Amino acid sequence: MKMKGKYGEIVRSDRTFDVIAAVLGCIIIVIVMVPLIFVAAASFSDPDLVIRGEVLLWPKGLTTKAYTMVFENKDIWRGFRNTMFYTAFGTIISVTLTVLAAYPLSRKNLRGRNFIMMAVLFTMYFSGGMVPTYLLVKDLGMYNTIWAILIPNALSTYNLIVAKTFFENSIPEELYESARLDGCGNISMLLRIVLPLSKAILAVLVLYYAVAIWNSYFDALIYLKDSSLHPLQIVLRNILLLGQTEQMGTNDVGMAEKIKMAEAIKYSVIVVSSIPMLLLYPFVQKYFVKGVMIGAVKG
Fold this sequence. Notes:
The chain is an all-alpha fold. It folds into 2 domains: 14-52; 65-289, MetI-like (MetI-like fold, Orthogonal Bundle). Helix content is 71%, strand content 0%. It contains 14 helices and no strands. The chain has helices at residues 12-43, 47-51, 65-72, 74-106, 113-125, 130-139, 147-150, 157-170, 173-181, 186-194, 199-215, 218-223, 232-242, 255-296. α11 runs antiparallel to α14 (255-296). It is globular. The two termini are 23 Å apart. The chain crosses the membrane at residues 20-44, 84-103, 115-135, 141-161, 190-211, 264-284.
């Protein structure tokens, strides 16, 4: 970049790049935001108008009937409670396992760490498949229990690599040497030095795992038979794909009314299920970019 005077001058090629990047960024924002705004508008609109396609970015025939039916439904509240539990404890387990695995693998004096990393990377591209995994979960006694949601996918290879790279590049070796001279062992160094300096990557791991667990439904679909253990996403799936509007108390109305209620309810459930993750992001946003960049780029 050419610089002129104290503040410098952006060359034409850089200005062109900035314009193109800004335009592409605006296009991406529109592509992402339009469906979100439509879902929010449709959830507050008259179902007849939504079905006829008259609702786009602003509610029409404003009504909160769908939200009333959602909040009065026990299955949705039970699914919401289950999902909160799975997300909270699953995130704690996943972040703990990731840190405990990434920290020793980041230490250059660990014997056989290259072999271990190759074994870990192998699992990123190859797995035993769905049927062997299902049989393993069943043989371990986790079928139809909360552990079938919390344990099988507790550790992400990608997140492990990001955390390992962060520890390697962001924690100076001199700190380890000083701590070792003061009599600290590996556990003390992890708890007193590494973790306090790793808030950025911990925030990223929390966000990644929490969003993944919150949106997950397939594990619950194949491992949980008891409906009292179903997460919110399974309840939402039933509404969206199976049309189970009987759960909303619409057994006494005609089919046309059922279709209208299902149309309104599905949008309101999507909004309700998205709010917790939207509330989580602002608390980790300041660490997010830093953690991703440092953890993903070597050197």
